[in-house]
Amino acid sequence: MESFVKPAVAFLLLCVPSVGAGQVNKEVELIATSDSFSVRFPPGGPSPQKVLAYCESLRRQLVELWQNAGELPSWNPVCEVQVHRSRAAYIDAVGPIGAHTLGSSLIQLDRGRTVSRRIDVLMEPNGDLPALPHELTHIVLAECFGGNQPPHWLDEAAAMLADTKQKQSLHERDCRQALQQGTALPLSQILRLEQFTSPDQMPAFYGQSASLMRYLCQQGDLAKVTRFGIDATEHGYDQALSKHYGISNVEELERRWKHYAFNLDRGEADKSLSVFTVSFRP
Ligand SMILES: [Zn+2]
User: Fold this and answer.
1) Which long-range CB contacts under 8 A does 27-35 form with residues at least 24 apart?
2) Residues lying with their CB under 5 A of ligand 1, a single-atom ion
3) Cα(24) to centroid of ligand 1, in Å?
């Protein structure tokens, strides 16, 4: 979810995580496993098999979208998914940031090899798991980048496409406000920002990143964005922009994106939120 990404040396932290891998919450009583997932949650929610099937289905959809790949290798280690029924149990697992989020994900790398995948999500009273698609996107994208950390803006923008429409609308509003009020961050800063220096940067960062992602989605499919991101990480943005989108450099991208964002009317903005349609209930 929306939080600070801590710098990593030997391992990569995505979103919030301050929980040790393998830590088992006291309230957990049910478990369902497959070749790629181990789902744990307290009794009283959806059936274990249903949640597991939901995870497998989401992963298939996300890999198809971001990698254009049909083949799904088993995850080793498996992705641990910890479902929490109470906010208190969730905060217990992820730390104070859990007071403001519904999910977090953690990937630990050791010399480019994934040694741990973990998601913590808070279940809504009606059984929905609204944060699971967002957090699973982080896990799938990390795999696409093969041991390198995806750029923060791309990682969050990709995950936001899997958020509820209401949530995406709020990010769209934040982007519009930042542009109108002159508080938008320069794109060169968005593309390289890995850690916030002030909480005031967050609404513009998330809003602009989501908007930039939707702009790029109009120039090709999502797998192209992944390839662009990988090339940008290895060779820089100017070269990657030129290769994948025929855009000469970041300044030109900023000019084109601003033209898109300023001229997007409300109706078009709402339609553009439907890049990825997902169910939030197992
Ligand atoms: Zn996130």
Assistant:
1) 27/84, 27/85, 27/86, 27/89, 28/82, 33/78, 34/78, 35/74, 35/75, 35/78
2) 15, 159
3) 22
